TrEMBL record:
Binds 2 iron ions per subunit. Fe cation 2 binds at D78, N145, H239, H274. Residues 39-277 form the Calcineurin-like phosphoesterase domain. The keyword Coiled coil does not apply. It comes from Musa troglodytarum. Belongs to the metallophosphoesterase superfamily. Purple acid phosphatase family. It comes from the Eukaryota. PANTHER family: TARTRATE-RESISTANT ACID PHOSPHATASE TYPE 5 (PTHR10161). One of its GO terms (molecular function) is metal ion binding. The keyword Transcription regulation does not apply. This is Purple acid phosphatase. It is an enzyme of class 3 (hydrolase). Its cofactor is Fe cation. Fe cation 1 binds at D45, D78, Y81, H276.
């Protein structure tokens, strides 16, 4: 713990000292519905080729997705177990994604419109030569720690979009959906133990290392993007827990580095996976709500460790989450593996919270 404290202090000092330039976060657009609303599903920790009830969760996602007329799906990471993808030709991509999420509501949510007079030009398998385009995908994932144990560049490659056009995976990016800005953050490189104590695992740090550069550059870009946002709602999506009462608990590095940026910029929700459960925790010193949706397949960890913030809901099992937004209100629902509603909560911009 003392070692982490020293590392935290050193990196905190470095954050203040580094002024190096870095590219701004790539930005995408997706229209809200004609009435100005938005409906999405959020699921995490799912990629097990249909096993551990992944297929059952996917079926219920399809049913709820149709009822809500969803606009797209967000994945909170750990997309392919146990060790990510081996490459762009790894059949696990289709076995865990394409062949599992087959319901009509998860298959046909395509976006249309012009590309703002900008062409999509492929620079390489990892990079795209655009900053602002309209998106045409139904699945927006972040990377998890298990994804980093394989070929990370494969998940980031546009080759996968040729296999399944719903897939759009980048390390850090912004999705503007008119009434909300989603900020997708790659949190795995923030966690020190993956670098210093990987145990028997190999982590693919290509295009990330060194960590001491990645962290300040990410936080600088995220802070700038959040400050520029004029959307009524600001939602940050990452894989690792900020606050959690389950197996992994709080992630110290996220509390030290990421949370201050979120608080300073009025972020409404932080949504994550990593812990294989469903939970809602309210911050006691800010308006931020911490939402864990990591029940996409293997779950039932049997761990419960309270923390200092307010626990509103915890389900140690499989399931997923829906989020419905208008300019004035957000409605959150957690569902179990059978598609049964477990918990519902709402928040408004004027009243901030509905108890």
């Amino acid at each position: 713990m003392a070692g982490f404290a020293r590392e935290t202090m050193a990196l905190a000092i470095l954050l203040l000292a580094i002024l190096a330039c870095s590219a701004e976060l790539q930005r995408f657009e997706s229209p809200a519905k004609p009435d100005g609303s938005l409906s999405i599903l959020i699921v995490g920790d799912w990629g097990r080729k249909g096993q551990f009830n992944q297929s059952q969760v996917a079926t219920q996602m399809g049913r709820i997705g149709e009822e809500l007329d969803i606009d797209f799906v967000v994945s909170t990471g750990d997309n392919f177990y146990e060790d990510g993808l081996t490459g762009v030709d790894d059949k696990a991509f289709e076995e865990s994604f394409t062949n599992i999420y087959t319901s009509k509501s998860l298959q046909t949510q395509w976006y249309s419109g012009k590309l703002n007079k900008m062409e999509i030009n492929v620079l390489s398998d990892q990079y795209l030569m655009f900053n602002l385009i309209k998106i045409y995908v139904a699945m927006l994932p972040v990377l998890g720690n298990h994804d980093y144990r394989g070929d990370v560049l494969a998940q980031l490659s546009p080759v996968l979009r040729n296999i399944d056009g719903r897939w759009l995976c980048l390390r850090n990016f912004i999705l503007n959906a008119e009434i909300v800005d989603f900020f997708f953050v790659d949190t795995t490189p923030l966690v020190e133990s993956y670098w210093t104590n990987p145990e028997d695992h190999h982590y693919d740090w290509r295009e990330v290392a060194p960590r001491e550069n990645y962290i300040p550059n990410l936080l600088k870009d995220l802070d700038a993007a959040l400050k520029e946002s004029t959307a009524p709602w600001k939602i940050v999506v990452g894989h690792h827990t900020m606050r959690s009462v389950s197996e992994h608990g709080d992630t110290p590095e996220l509390l030290a580095f990421l949370l201050p940026v979120l608080k300073d910029n009025g972020v409404d929700l932080y949504v994550n996976g990593h812990d294989h459960c469903l939970e809602h925790i309210s911050s006691k010193d800010s308006p931020i709500q911490y939402l864990t949706s990591g029940g996409g397949s293997k779950a039932w960890r049997g761990v419960f460790t309270p923390n200092s913030d307010k626990l509103r809901f915890f389900h140690d099992g499989q399931g997923f989450m829906s989020l419905q937004l208008t300019v004035a209100a957000a409605n959150i629902v957690f569902y179990d593996v059978f598609g049964q509603e477990l918990y519902r909560w709402s928040v408004t911009k004027s009243l901030r919270a509905a108890e």
